[in-house]
Amino acid sequence: MEDNTNSISERAEFDKKMVEKNEYMPVRSKRGVLMSIQKAEKKDLQEILDLQYIAYQSEAKLLGNDDIHLTI
After folding, report:
1. Domain boundaries, the chain
2. Are 28 and 45 in contact (CB under 8 A)?
3. What is the mean pLDDT of residues 2-21?
4. What is the pLDDT of residue 53?
5. Residues 41, 45, 48, 52, CA torsion sign
6. How far apart are CA 47 and CA 9, in angstroms?
7. pTM of the predicted model, to two decimals?
8. Do 68 and 60 touch, CB atoms closer than 8 A?
9. In terms of CB atoms within 10 Å, which end of the chain has fewer, N or C?
10. What is the 3-state secondary structure (H, E, C) of the chain?
């Protein structure tokens, strides 16, 4: 479903429908959609793990410790 809404009330109604359909969780500013949060699917897991690993690198550098222990 494409977001062709103009007014704040139209946007709110559109967002409500998307959330009810479990399509995504919109995050808006006054200017419109900044991002949408969607459920991850199994096919996304490796990409998510890779992104987490990359994001951790800056924290590891700050702490001077690059050991990553899985917490499952």
Report:
1. 1-39, 40-72
2. no
3. 72
4. 85
5. positive
6. 36
7. 0.47
8. yes
9. C
10. CCCCCCCHHHHHHHHHHHHHCCCCEEEEECCEEEEEECCCCHHHHHHHHHHHHHHHHHHHHHHCCCCCCCCC
Average pLDDT score over residue span 34-48: 85
Tokens of 60: 């590891």
Residue that has been written with the tokens 């991002």 in this structure: 35
Closest CA to 14 of 27, 31, 2: 2
Q: Count how many residues are written for the chain.
A: 72
pLDDT at 43: 93
d(C-alpha 35, C-alpha 58), whole Å = 24
29-34: list long-range contacts, CB under 8 Å, 24+ apart: 33/3
